[in-house]
Design a protein that fits this description.
It contains 5 helices and 7 strands, in the order H-H-E-E-H-E-E-H-E-E-E-H. Strands 1, 2, 3, 4, 5, 6 and 7 form a 7-stranded mixed sheet that branches. It has one domain: Roll (Nuclear Transport Factor 2, Chain: A). Helix 1 runs antiparallel to helix 2. The chain is α+β, with helices and mostly antiparallel strands. The longest helix is centred in the N-terminal third of the chain and has 18 residues. It comes from Nocardioides caeni.
Length: 196
């Protein structure tokens, strides 16, 4: 399990920052980087700062056979709060490929989301409700941004259900939100001054 290192979840973002010169694109990548680290550290409330996210974000999810729309900050925040309470905010990536434009970031990656067995059982999965798992799937994501560089929402969909995996975790491999926060704290940078 050594390949699952939360401090490397955003490695593709950081590599793209190294080769991106466009000031607007760099700003969006910095915001994306900060958002994901805050989420994984359980510091989701900071994502909703007025300079980071619009007042009425809209998230579209089509993953694990569930197609849902979250409209408005309250609905989105409820999901972030639940994920932080259950440590589902802990996730890892494999082979992430990113593209950035003036008003969006696109990503394709295998995402490994830490998930309690009880959550999977409630969704109909035949697993141990007392155990923890990594649920892996290949996802496309589009994150649109407004002209001020604020997140408008997320569009996330699983592109190949046949590649979905449920990987059991040994209790020693389960990362708590507190542990994640300590590991990620040095990587969470403030937003840069907006260059546009």
């Amino acid at each position: 399990m050594s390949r699952f290192d939360i401090t490397r979840t955003n490695i593709a973002v950081e590599r793209l920052l190294e080769t991106t010169d466009n000031p607007r694109h760099r700003y969006l990548l910095e915001a994306y980087n900060r958002h994901r680290y805050l989420e994984m550290a359980g510091r989701w409330k900071e994502i909703f700062a007025p300079e980071m996210t619009v007042e009425h974000p809209i998230y579209h999810f089509n993953v694990f056979g569930i197609n849902t729309v979250l409209e408005g900050a309250e609905a989105v925040q409820a999901v972030y709060a639940e994920w932080s309470e259950t440590a589902q905010c802990v996730f890892y990536t494999d082979d992430e490929v990113l593209a950035v434009g003036d008003n969006m970031i696109c990503s394709t990656a295998t995402i490994y989301q830490q998930t309690p067995g009880a959550v999977l059982v409630a969704a109909g999965a035949p697993v141990d409700p007392e155990a923890h798992y990594l649920v892996a799937n290949v996802e496309h994501m589009i994150w649109p941004y407004d002209d001020e560089g604020r997140l408008i929402g997320e569009d996330v969909w699983e592109i190949d259900e046949s590649k979905r995996q449920v990987i059991p975790l040994d209790p020693s491999q389960v990362l708590t939100v507190a542990q994640s926060a300590v590991l990620l704290d040095p990587l969470i940078k403030p937003l840069p001054v907006r260059p546009f």
